[in-house]
Specification:
Helix content: 25-40%
Bound molecules: CU2-O2 cluster
Radius of gyration: 25 Å
CATH topology of the largest domain: Immunoglobulin-like
Number of strands: 14
Shape: globular
CATH superfamily of the largest domain: Hemocyanin, C-terminal domain
Distance between the termini: 32 Å
Low-confidence stretches: none
Structural class: alpha+beta
Mean pLDDT: 94
Number of domains: 3
Largest sheet: 7 strands, mixed
Length: 663
């Protein structure tokens, strides 16, 4: 890593230290005193945006520092976008960073954090900069009340402490069996980063950058989250999640047991609540908008604002539909199709005080950091996912010519765990412990002696494994290997036809291969998965590594492709059962030279793009031009005809054990 980069990385970390308190770092406060964006208007792409934000500051209209920022609140969001325009529109790094320092203590901390993070993620000159884990910057959004309280006690009494965090709820609530998934801090972090990489308010006309297949990614990433949740449920003897309906009871309640930084509690929802009309949005509105979306899907056409029609029934249809269902900013016709998904989040968040009579703060559903803790999150997303399924089912099933790769036959597939006692085609999952450092969050800058305060959480993990795939090629060819996993039996213990199970397929990997003439043994490590990212470094470790590297020790590697978005690698496999649970593993090889749409891109370059599967790319085109989830995204008429020789299915058992197996 070169010196300029390291300096930037360090500045970013220093800026986010003790975010809830005013800056004290002398280097940064010096910037604060010497820089004002108004005096540097020529250094911004859009000087009017700078004036707009300054006006918000000087007229006292900005959200108070101790208020609760919600991205779904139009006023909060507009202010955040105003700040984002300043940060994103600064013409050089220096101006960007000084503007960030200048605005930090003027703005609500989480509003600032969001605008700043999205700017870092989208600025060319911040490529490779690593943001500290959000759960160490704003731990209130990730941890439960008891843990945060104990952390403050530890700080007051200066007693080093390791605080165990339990999953919320009790054994009397069957939903608690899958709380380890919805409450996993890594998964929440993935989800919130996905929404920072692909903001629902993003307008390419305004911010310059066209995001490739954003609507389709919205569909696919959430589709995968739901599929994963269902697989976890089956691993715990729970039926798959039911879609939420606007006029039916929300059967499961939810008690987040968490408190905002300002002391207000996240509202809890008792069992069997009904949705209620909000002052600005009724249940009837939701139904009307959804009816229009259903009409569009059924007719295969979307209406534009000038009464034109755009066809949906093609491979690009899902992208259009994804944008239209998610939010209004990227919809072709926001007045007509509304913003069904975003409004669903808000309806759920405010369900216990819909008329805002009691001034309840927003629920977990209003923040991407906290949303998946509520089982109703998956119910909402199943509802949305069913709309996408309705659309996909309208498309003609793939013809044999689209499925086969005549030069290639998969002869065998084996999955091998790398732990000592591993049996082929059987993989082990287990729970391990991870520490979340709370020092940064509870300590004040002026406190000389920091004490060690950590929360310890239990997390799902799995043994490392590899796929060994024997592929015969009639001539040298390049292929893309696509790997999917699905439970073999449904909740009733029945085998499902492929046309049913395919919608619950979990994508495990997706990678290019070069095949020689004859038999090829392709080995691929689970750690290289295209849908996951490794465990991120904690704040202190990151800071330490950067400081060491500045002093000349090479402990920090600069990676310009670094992604924060990506499923935590630990969660790659569903839990399975103690006695073993059977899954089916589908492997498909397709023709690289037909599928890749980024002409000239080499397989190695594709390999260097992490978490492509659920997170796409930050700029430019997604290399694989096939629809996400291909070839299982469309109806399967005949299972026998569908499985051409370039595909192979094997059974795989996943066993959940108490102790981490010996490697
Ligand atoms: Cu990610 Cu609804 O889109 O939470």
């Amino acid at each position: 890593a070169d010196a300029t980069f390291l300096k930037r990385q360090l500045q970013v970390l220093n800026l986010l230290r003790h975010l809830n308190q005013p800056l004290t770092d002398p280097e940064l406060t010096a910037f604060k005193d010497s820089f004002s964006p108004l005096n540097n208007l020529n250094k911004f792409k859009d000087p009017a945006a700078v004036r707009d934000f300054v006006e918000l500051v000087t007229t006292g209209k900005l959200l108070e520092r101790d208020a609760i920022f919600s991205l779904f609140n139009p006023r909060h969001r507009a202010q955040m976008v105003a700040l984002f325009k300043v940060l994103h529109g600064a013409v050089d790094y220096d101006t960007f960073f000084k503007s960030a320092v200048w605005s930090r203590d003027l703005t609500n901390p989480r509003q600032f954090l969001y605008a700043f993070s999205v700017a870092v993620l989208h600025r060319e000159d911040c490529r490779g900069v690593i943001l500290p884990p959000a759960y160490e910057v704003t731990p209130h959004m990730f941890l439960t009340t008891d843990v945060v309280r104990k952390a403050y006690q530890a700080k007051m009494t200066r007693t080093p402490m390791v605080i165990p965090m339990r999953f919320t709820g009790s054994v009397n609530n069957p939903e608690q069996r899958v709380a380890y998934f919805g409450e996993d801090v890594g998964m929440n972090s993935h989800h919130s980063h996905w929404h920072m990489d692909f903001p629902f308010w993003w307008r390419s006309e305004e911010f310059g950058e066209q995001k490739d297949r954003q609507g389709e990614l919205f569909f696919y990433m959430h589709h995968q989250m739901v599929a994963r949740f269902d697989a976890e449920r089956l691993s715990n003897n729970l039926p798959v999640v039911e879609p939420l309906e606007w006029d039916q009871k929300i059967v499961e309640g939810f008690a987040p047991g968490a408190t905002y930084e300002n002391g207000q509690e996240f509202p809890m929802r008792p069992d069997n609540m009904n949705f209620g009309d909000l002052p600005w949005l009724t249940i009837q509105d939701m139904k009307i908008v959804e009816g229009r979306i259903r009409d569009a899907i059924a007719s295969g056409f979307v209406k534009t604002t000038d009464a034109g029609l755009i066809s949906l029934n093609n491979t690009a249809g899902i992208d259009l539909l994804g944008g239209l269902v998610e939010s209004s900013a990227r919809s072709v016709n926001p007045m007509f199709y509304g913003q069904l998904h975003n409004d669903g989040h808000v309806m759920l968040s405010k369900v216990t005080d819909p008329q805002q009579r009691y001034g309840m703060p927003p629920g977990v559903m209003e923040h991407f950091e906290t949303a998946t803790r509520d089982p109703a999150f998956f119910r909402l997303h199943k509802h949305v996912d069913n709309l996408f399924k309705m659309h996909k089912d309208q498309l003609p099933p793939y013809a044999a010519s689209e499925l086969e790769f005549p030069e290639v036959t998969i002869e065998a597939v084996k999955v091998i765990g790398t732990c000592k006692a591993s049996t082929p085609n059987q993989l082990i999952t287990y729970f391990d412990e991870s520490h979340i450092d709370l020092k940064n969050a509870v300590h004040a800058e002026d406190q000389k002696q920091e004490v060690d305060i950590k929360a310890v959480v239990s997390r799902l993990n799995h043994e490392p494994f590899k796929y060994v795939i024997t592929i015969n090629a009639k001539k040298p060819v390049r292929g893309i290997v696509r790997v999917f996993l699905t439970p073999k039996f449904n909740w009733f213990g029945q085998q499902m036809p492929l046309d049913v199970s395919r919608w619950g397929f979990i994508e495990l990997d997706h990678f290019p291969v070069s095949l020689q003439h004859g038999d090829n043994v392709v080995t691929r490590s689970s750690a290289d998965s295209a849908v996951t990212i490794p465990e991120p470094r904690g704040f202190s470790q990151l800071m330490g590594d950067v400081q060491k590297s500045i002093r000349g020790e090479q402990v920090f590697t600069y990676d310009k492709y670094y992604r924060h978005c990506g499923f935590p690698h630990r969660l790659l496999l569903p839990k399975g059962k103690p006695e073993g649970m059977t899954y089916k593993l589908y492997v498909v090889v397709t023709d690289y030279d037909k599928d890749i749409v980024t002409a000239g891109m080499k397989p190695e370059e594709i390999e260097s793009l992490p978490s492509l599967g659920y997170c796409g790319v930050m700029d430019g085109k997604i290399p694989d031009g096939k629809p996400m989830g291909f070839p299982f995204d469309r109806r399967v008429v005949s299972e026998e005809q569908f499985l051409t020789p370039n595909m192979k299915v094997v059974d795989l058992t996943i066993k959940n054990v108490k102790q981490k197996p010996i490697e």
